[in-house]
Structure formats: C-alpha cells, structure tokens
Amino acid sequence: MKKIILLLCLSLFIASCGSKKRVVTSKSKTKKERVVKKPRKRKEVKVTSEPAPKPVVIEDTPEVYNSPTEEYIAIYSDIAKDEMKSYGIPASITLAQGILESGSGKGRLSTEANNHFGIKCHSGWTGGKIYHDDDASQECFRKYKNSKYSFRDHSLFLKERKRYSDLFNLQKDDYEGWAKGLRKAGYATDRKYPQKLISLIERYQLYRFDNEVLGKDNGVNEKHIVVAGDTLYSLAKKYNLTVETLKSLNGLENNSLFVGQILYVKPLPKD
Asked: Topology of domain 68-218, per CATH?
C-alpha cells in the first residue's frame, strides 16, 4: 500500500516538473502621444494694384480776351450797370474812367488797393490807406477790401459833391455831356480827358451798357463769335465794314483771330 502511494506521489512530481509554465503576459496599453502641429505661418502676400484713378474734373474753359481792356470790361460791366441803376451815372462813363485811371486794372492802386479811380484819402477817411506818388510824393489813397467798394465810392464821390450836381440833370445816356462835364467840374486837369473817355466809350461800345440799363435796343450793335475759317477780311465783308473799322471796334492790333473769340460788329449803312 505504501508503495502504491509512493509511486503516485512520484508520478505527480514528475508530471508537474515536466509541464511548461504558463506565462501570462498582459498587453500594456500604449500611450498615444498627442502631436500638436504648429500652424504654418502664412506668408504675407503684398497685393500691388494700380492706384484708383483720380476723378476727372472738367473745368470751364476760361474766356480768352484780346486785350486787358476787354477783360476789364467783361469783369466790371455788371458792377458799372448796378451803379448806374442806383446813382444815375452812365455805366459807360464809369467803365471808361476805370479803364483810364486804373490802366485797365493793371495799375498799382488797383492791384494792391482795389482803387480803380485814384480816389485819395481826404479828411474823414477811416478805411485802409496806401501811399503812392501822384501830384506829390507819397500821397494817401484809399484802400478797399474789394473792387466793388471802389466803384461804390466813385458813385458816392460824384453824387455827394455839389460841383458835380449839374451832371445829373443830363440825359442818362449822354456820355459825351458827362465826359465834358467832369472836366469842367474839375475832376481832371488833363484838357484831353473828355476826348479820352469818349474815345474809349466808342471804341469798345461801352454805351451798350447804358442802353441795357435803360431798356433800349442796341440796334446795330452785334456780336460775332469767331469760327474756323473766319478772317478779318471775310467778316468785314459780311458785316459791311472795313477791316480797319473792325479792328478799331475790337481794339485789335493785328489781324490774328482765334476760334471762340467774340468780336463786336457795327454794320455801316449800305448805299
């Protein structure tokens, strides 16, 4: 019996030793690393585009005048007409005096002091002043902020002084009477002053502004706008004028014309 038990024990021992050990391995979970990708820097792309075109400003074509005198008339004729309406001084006289005494607006007193009529300071003047050589050295002349005040002062100068009172009894469009009356009343010492005014009035047809204020028809006083192909000869023939008369009416010193130029024409009576 003991032998049997011993054999059993031995067999069990041998069997346990010969058997392979079971190795239990547990799979370890592999940690996944989170990869943070840095965003790529975007390259700045400079967009070059042509600058936006500037808006085109269409300006009015400036008037072109044949002479400084024509330009002066165009600028100040409306003011002269207003003064005629308010004070009864012919616009033709006012313009002719302004042209003569300011050098068509180019003289020092007119450019630096807006004084178109050479009016001196006199007593009681509290406005601006400018000193200029005239009858004596560095005489005091009135200085204005705007040319229109010079025209108004000219009107008041004539209207408020008794020595010019007779002039206002003349016909409103009697520019010849006014020209001679101004010299007689002592406005100017130049003996040819009346003739100079009358010559300017008739040469540039300044009396047409008197007619406009008085509502009179200017009749034969016409304007012609020069077009391509016009010449002084062709226009003189068209309006029954001589070339010299046409040049005289418009203050032309030569035969040159330009498109758009305004010419005054006064037809002569036909035979």
From this structure: Lysozyme (1.10.530)
